[in-house]
Amino acid sequence: xxxxxxxxxxxxxxxxxxxxxxxxxxxxxxxxxxxxxxxxxxxxxxxxxxxxxxxxxxxxxxxxxxxxxxxxxxxxxxxxxxxxxxxxxxxxxxxxxxxxxxxxxxxxxxxxxxxxxxxxxxxxxxxxxxxxxxxxxxxxxxxxxxxxxxxxxxxxxxxxxxxxxxxxxxxxxxxxxxxxxxxxxxxxxxxxxxxxxxxxxxxxxxxxxxxxxxxxxxxxxxxxxxxxxxxxxxxxxxxxxxxxxxxxxxxxxxxxxxxxxxxxxxxxxxxxxxxxxxxxxxxxxxxxxxxxxxxxxxxxxxxxxxxxxxxxxxxxxxxxxxxxxxxxxxxxxxxxxxxxxxxxxxxxxxxxxxxxxxxxxxxxxxxxxxxxxxxxxxxxxxxxxxxxxxxxxxxxxxxxxxxxxxxxxxxxxxxxxxxxxxxxxxxxxxxxxxxxxxxxxxxxxxxxxxxxxxxxxxxxxxxxxxxxxxxxxxxxxxxxxxxxxxxxxxxxxxxxxxxxxxxxxxxxxxxxxxxxxxxxxxxxxxxxxxxxxxxxxxxxxxxxxxxxxxxxxxxxxxxxxxxxxxxxxxxxxxxxxxxxxxxxxxxxxxxxxxxxxxxxxxxxxxxxxxxxxxxxxxxxxxxxxxxxxxxxxxxxxxxxxxxxxxxxxxxxxxxxxxxxxxxxxxxxxxxxxxxxxxxxxxxxxxxxxxxxxxxxxxxxxxxxxxxxxxxxxxxxxxxxxxxxxxxxxxxxxxxxxxxxxxxxxxxxxxxxxxxxxxxxxxxxxxxxxxxxxxxxxxxxxxxxxxx
Length: 787
Description:
Elements: E1 7-11, H1 15-26, E2 30-35, H2 45-55, E3 71-75, H3 76-79, E4 88-91, H4 97-110, E5 116-119, H5 126-129, H6 135-139, E6 141-146, E7 155-160, H7 166-178, E8 183-186, H8 195-212, H9 217-223, H10 236-242, H11 244-257, H12 271-278, E9 291-294, E10 297-301, E11 308-309, H13 320-323, H14 328-336, H15 341-359, H16 368-379, H17 385-392, H18 394-404, H19 410-418, E12 424-425, E13 429-432, E14 436-439, H20 449-453, E15 459-463, E16 466-472, E17 475-480, H21 489-504, E18 509-513, H22 525-537, H23 545-562, E19 568-577, H24 579-586, E20 589-599, H25 613-624, H26 630-645, H27 653-659, E21 667-669, H28 675-688, E22 699-701, H29 703-719, H30 725-738, E23 747-749, H31 751-762, H32 769-781
Parallel strand pairs: 1-2, 1-4, 2-3, 4-5, 5-6, 7-8, 17-18, 18-19, 19-20, 20-21
Antiparallel strand pairs: 6-7, 9-10, 10-11, 12-13, 13-14, 15-16, 16-17, 22-23
Helix pairs in contact: 8-15, 8-16, 15-17, 21-23, 25-26, 26-30, 29-30, 30-31
């Protein structure tokens, strides 16, 4: 059994050190964050200043405000002895070999014989950092290269030395994957390891296309972003986010460290970027780099004048049709064969990327899969280099490389001689030089729906926007397949049918989940808009019958889920908003990825929650109160009113529990790849325990006195200019429902009473012009309008 880490020390409170400490705290560890002592005054002044700065970072580095309490600050003079009590020490000081070696000497004299020690260096030799240390120390020492920001980027490269104990590697691998939510890749002790070696090369290709090949910043970012399955920040926005000084530092250190690299000269940074760094144009941190925001407009750098200008129309030919293709595989194929500047750029850059990646085996990694995983997890690529090669075709790409005069690695030529035409065989094995196909490790604690759907018999029911799948062992899964995983009419009707099916078949229970970026972003507003438009054109219908029927259907559905006789578990991740939040709240048991951003945001589109969300939040206020008295319940009702009134969205699953959107029994998983598996296990566990649905208990509502309190809160916000007139009107409806409507004094009511109030206060808002403005604005801009 692998032993989890419970305490850690992070040495160095800079940008990376503070963030690593924060993420260890997110995982439940007590963390000592130490840095140099201040020369005068309080010796903790430096570390405290660095920590305060880290707390202001956006997006936030901690799951909740309470999590910050698990980080204990200190300095090397007064608190270094704390290292004797921790399980893991991570060094994150300046990239200077001598300083790191001196620090390792001091660490060895302080830590106990069980402590694991690692360095977060991104470029120095791991072996060199441990030089002069004892055999015992070296057995417990390795490189742990986190990617910035550590909370949000999945990759963790482990770089063991020849002396590192296999037990230590296994422990960090297990803990990193299970408790830090990381994708683990074992890298070799080579300059910049795996992801940065390839990533910096690709960045330099884009930079050289800008300086030498006549492509504009906008053209290159169009061709290196979501179009080809990479982040929308593409090349130059990514450089600005990383920091041009950081990119320059990495490239300058890499160049002398790779004398045998056949593409070494590409790592010579163009003078343009040196000049930007010299003049303080470092990217996002200084407000300008390759891009600059001027009077609300994004402008880009003119490389000749160094002025920032409005973007010119891109000259890439007709690629709109390619951009609209939903499948990445199709977009890559079409772009590769595109005749024009867009195709020329992509062919040139992808051929160089693929041949460069191939040459790095076995230098930086032994398997193509390691490079692919590193680029997916570290740089957000949808497909790694060798996966892209498979998509474009092994033989055509090899032929084009040869025509272009690129030197071909011997192992690629050996593949061709053997007649092997793919790096991956049915996604279960990967070609490894000298070993032919090697089976990829099968993780038994993950469920991936593509694997499930590969078996036609696994689909129990489906329509065009949803499906019911067999996960095995008597557990079904209801999967959304609508655009952006919205709650469309077909998704709602499909869930009703899935419950009917589950009720009449010998299955133990059901998971509601998917593998999209977001579990559910709410009701399909475009669909609702069409219904309203049709009803407005119908002179015989002024009651919004279709909307009322849809709302009643959804309320009936969520109540049926909550009281269903078999366990139903929601497996949620990403954004869980509006109706999606209400659906998750209706499931008595939830498994949430830690990176779940959940909230009732209906006021942002001029509506109020009406799918049971207000009813369940009123119940949550009851449950949080120490006694069933109005005085104890009211503070929690006020909190609910503020949370929903301001359309707050939780920053994490843990904050979702604090805000009341998730119940206290929610299972939180740090690694999203595991959340469907854990949800299935939850269904099985509940079934084996002898499942019974939650009891029907009344809800204590506080009546008109509490409503007056809530309306006064809205009045103060309005007077202070924090909310608009219409926000206040919506807040009054919110207060009316949460406190029980026209009830004059505190009373107990049932679920149906509050559901009726939700409906009665939701439906009139459909006719409000300001609501229509908000909905239209959201559909056009994807941003809320506060009119």
